[in-house]
Amino acid sequence: MTKQVQQLDRVIIRFAGDSGDGMQLTGDRFTAGTAEFGNDLSTLPNFPAEIRAPAGTLPGVSSFQLHFADHDILTPGDAPNVLVAMNPAALKANLGDLPRGADIIANTDEFTKRNLQKVGYTGNPLEDDSLAEWRVHAVPLTSLTVKALEGFDLSKKDAERSKNMFALGLLSWLYHRPTEHTITFLEQKFAKKPEIAKANIAAFQAGWNFGETTESFSVSYEIKPAKLAPGVYRNISGNQALAYGLIAASVQAKLPLFLGSYPITPASDILHELSKHKKFGVRTFQAEDEIAGVGAALGAAFGGALGVTTTSGPGVVLKGETVGLAVMTELPLILVDVQRAGPSTGMPTKTEQTDLLMAMFGRNGESPVPIVAPSSPSDCFDAAIEAARIAVKYRTPVYLLSDGYLANGSEPWRLPEVSDLPDISTEFAVKTDDEEFLPYKRDTETLARAWAVPGTPGLEHRIGGIEKAEGSGNISYDPNNHDLMVRLRQAKIDGIDVPDLEVDDVHDGTKVLVLGWGSTYGPIAAAVRRIRKAGGKVAQAHLRHLNPLPANVGEVLKSYDKVLLPEINLGQLALLLRAKFLVDIISYNRVRGLPFKAEELAGVIQDVIEK
Amino acid sequence: MTELVNGKGLNLIPKTDVKQTLKDFKSDQEVRWCPGCGDYAILAAVQSFLPELGLKRENIVFVSGIGCSSRFPYYLNTYGFHSIHGRAPAIATGLAASRPDLSVWVITGDGDALSIGGNHLIHALRRNVNLNILLFNNRIYGLTKGQYSPTSEVGKITKSTPMGSLDKPFNPISLAIGAEASFVARTIDSDRKHLQAVLREATAHRGTSLVEIYQNCNIFNDNAFEPLKDPELRDDITLRLEHDQPIVSTSKAVVRAANGGIEVVARDSVSEDQILVHDAHHPDPSLAFALSRLDEPAFEHVPIGIFRQVDRPAYDVLMAEQLEQAASAKGPGDLSELLLGGDTWRIG
């Protein structure tokens, strides 16, 4: 049978199943094949915080969405064209996101009476006409997998476990993905269990062959490689890019990296990644708690290391007092906050932008801290270097505000040339013959004080959390000195050199600016494209530095009739901008634990344009 | 002294050829404790002890938390970090773990180390980073003006407990031994010779050494340790712990009890060979723990000295070894190689 091949420019696939079904791995491998093939791509893993919720239930559903295309794309996509549903719960949990006409590949073996009842289906949707508006491919994935593995020395249960690889094989056939990497990957992953490796590879190949022979699929799809800028690419998640950025910062600053951290979702992967790179002189210290994590990082910074702590919102709360001490002692320190849905424990695996005001103000006293926010998974690399640059140059703690979406999402990353990375090195203080050492004497340009590390003869000095006399750093309760020091610390942060805000405005007479910060860059840019494609005029600007703000922000805001600011919070940046620039920002806020959708934002922008 | 300078605890720390004196370790800051405070004696003892180590002054760091005792670093002409309440062990851990060439001291009090900082203290002890922790125990909150502390005796009447405190105190030595600290000792502010002898052993020890120093707060808890200082009483109630020596005071002795534990009896009621000989180096901490339980609030007998001193790899050394192993097994880190690792593809 010759099958038809159809050309597509982009596809959004969502793999959904039980937490134990291996959907994240399946998604990862499909992504790797897609990256290797040369499509542009963006991913959105979405999983429960529970390690294993009861099998077959709605809370146990784990999914992985992948958007890939023959052109550059900005988001993991709004609505899937294809849903792979490994059980009734996965179907039910995701059906609401599926547009009319989308494909559903359902594992019929799991659509048993019991499983259907568990999620409240009274009948089998695969057998009645309730899914009529979609194209349903009913495939007995589990039993086909078991059958394909009959010759293997495996229990039925073990054989069933490979059903995700069968599904991956089928989807790989359907979208013409290369197979070699997946096979190599499986061989390596199960190197110590060759029988399991062989079984998984066999299941993967059986899935591919099933696509080739079955009549359920009459068409397969080709998505040509994307024409991206020339260079060497790899697929990277935000947490991995951030970890690499910290290592690069350590190399470029010529300072040993010290990470003090306590495990917390969704930041732990940075700790895991950095702990693999000891050959770079990276010290990773898993502390007894969040407080000790940042404390140890600050202690290491006092000793001349690039001190870093990584955490998420609830951890930031605990670190506040040490951040204040770092402000007072004016030592370099990087605080990575991978934001997640709050307050309190909130929704640990879901994304949010709700820690901005905490990063700005979450300390006692006048305690200014610079804030940098990456805009995409790969941008976490550059943002980490930028945070380190500011920390080292200005001798200050710096917040790096990533979030769950960036942390776990991935995209192709055009690798930078190491020789193009900025030199962010600094000098430690040394004893000079002619001058008395003053620990709080400031550089006239940056207002940074000297970084005098223990081991340097002649510079013995004491620092601490009590107010310092200007220059000498001795304890001082003098009222005028305190007023001066409060202002100096503020002036130092206000004076940090940050690049101007760039505005993407392609038309004359554009009246609406849509502004964003952090991980909303992709959905906003995708929405702006849609508006422009439809003939609308809208400008876009994205803030990477939240504190201090670029010098031209006020001017940019005032040069448009309307400024729209979408945020995954209730208007935190809008509050700051309104207060500082007296500009009436139009906020758009959703806090659903998920990134914005491009279509949703395009609608909001259109409304603002028309109003 | 030569032996000390070459001791394991200090062998990674640069030495000086210049002869040092007490004056070299005095900072220019005016000491501002209350007149009569026990802290003065400890400061003087430390300042006069440090020259004997022969370390480069710039390689010594004092880190403190919050409380009266935590002002200590300001008065020493070394590097110093007066940090936040309870967190000194955490900050010092980061410093010592990344700089094995430093002699890092933690100055803390009973409130700082055992209340707000209890978690950091026990984890520092279990980890065994190269730190000398001096815990000034005066059994009261001084800086906040006289509330009871986690080492105050039950029933303590203070501003916050007008009808007497209800909670049972920590015994810092029991706590430290329970956390399997590798070096645990107790000394007293007024006995400079003993204090310095303990410091000598603590600095020679590579790993975390915890030294509890009974310290008198003459404002809020005066004479808390008076029996141990009273010339008529002290030799009678102080059970001196010296490795390989029988545990005795002038009139008392520690022996094995019939129930398998240990007890204090009249020295003249037992023969010399019945008296327990102290073994600070025993790998099992049980006996050291039992000795720490001999304390009682009435000060009828109090063990003073080194309870436990065992060899255990120091965290900072192990951490440095892992970095060296990684670099020698895989070669030093190369940034380009790191970025190009994993699956890459080329466009154009």
From TrEMBL, chain A:
Residues 258-470 form the Pyruvate flavodoxin/ferredoxin oxidoreductase pyrimidine binding domain. The lineage of its organism: Bacteria, Bacillati, Actinomycetota, Actinomycetes, Streptosporangiales. Residues 20-207 form the Pyruvate/ketoisovalerate oxidoreductase catalytic domain. Keywords: Oxidoreductase. Gene3D superfamilies: 3.40.50.920, 3.40.50.970, Pyruvate-ferredoxin oxidoreductase, PFOR, domain III (3.40.920.10). SUPFAM superfamilies: Pyruvate-ferredoxin oxidoreductase, PFOR, domain III, Thiamin diphosphate-binding fold (THDP-binding), TK C-terminal domain-like. It is an enzyme of class 1 (oxidoreductase). The keyword Oxidoreductase applies. Pfam families: POR, POR_N. The keyword Cytoplasm does not apply. InterPro entries: 2-oxoacid/accept_OxRdtase_asu, Pyruvate:ferred/Flavod_OxRd, Pyrv/ketoisovalerate_OxRed_cat, Pyrv_Fd/Flavodoxin_OxRdtase_N, Pyrv_flavodox_OxRed_cen, THDP-binding, Transketo_C/PFOR_II. It comes from Nonomuraea endophytica. This is 2-oxoglutarate ferredoxin oxidoreductase subunit alpha. GO terms for biological process: response to oxidative stress. It comes from the Bacteria. One of its GO terms (molecular function) is magnesium ion binding. Its EC number is 1.2.7.11, 1.2.7.3. CDD domains: TPP_PYR_PFOR_IOR-alpha_like (cd07034). NCBIfam families: OAFO_sf (TIGR03710).
From TrEMBL, chain B:
One of its GO terms (molecular function) is thiamine pyrophosphate binding. The keyword Lipid biosynthesis does not apply. Residues 66-213 form the Thiamine pyrophosphate enzyme TPP-binding domain. Signal peptide: none annotated. SUPFAM superfamilies: Thiamin diphosphate-binding fold (THDP-binding). Keywords: Oxidoreductase. InterPro entries: 2-oxoacid:Fd_oxidoreductase, THDP-binding, TPP_enzyme_TPP-bd. It is an enzyme of class 1 (oxidoreductase). It comes from the Bacteria. Its EC number is 1.2.7.11, 1.2.7.3. CDD domains: TPP_OGFOR (cd03375). One of its GO terms (biological process) is cellular respiration. This is 2-oxoglutarate ferredoxin oxidoreductase subunit beta.
